Amino acid sequence: MASVELDLRRLEPGRAPRPEDVADAATADSIAVRGPVPALAAVLTVLLKAERSAQVPVAWEPTGDKDSVALARDIGVGTGEQRELGLVRDDHGGVLLHHGRIEAAGDGRRALSRRLGLQAHHDDIKVADGEITRIDVRPDWRAVDTIGVTVMMQPLRPTRQTSGRALQVASDPARIVRDGVAYPRPVNRWTWYADHRMRWLLQP
Fold this sequence. Notes:
mainly beta; 204 residues; Tumour Suppressor Smad4
């Protein structure tokens, strides 16, 4: 095994790296990633599937887009020493680092004008049961194994916010967006959860 450098700075917005672009991460003993949040997420997904996320240090050089800047600040890129961080997973094989969204199926345009029939539980709290506009999910890097959930019932109306470990959703066909990248097909069920058994190593 060897150190691997992955330069993914030219990744287009809303796109994930191709599997072959991050395949070397599975056998590396350390990784340096340059690129936006989806680039880092893709590398951590490879490590997760290889069951090596807790063993392989990952250094990240973020791009200048607002999501990358915000995540870099939240996890302390460029500060301190190597440290272990939690990992938010989904039941479709991916990870979530900065922002996830559940909304009515479509191409993403005029999303606020569409409604989605949905039932959702955040841990043991029912946070939605009926038609909503969207759900936003964010890992809470200030806490341990925690995600924040915001349910928007209607545009420009008060939202419902909760904090916990897992969000489980059953819905009409829904569009899922993970760190800016849309899941390739509509789904009727989805789970995001902060997995207390999984960690990854950030090399600041």
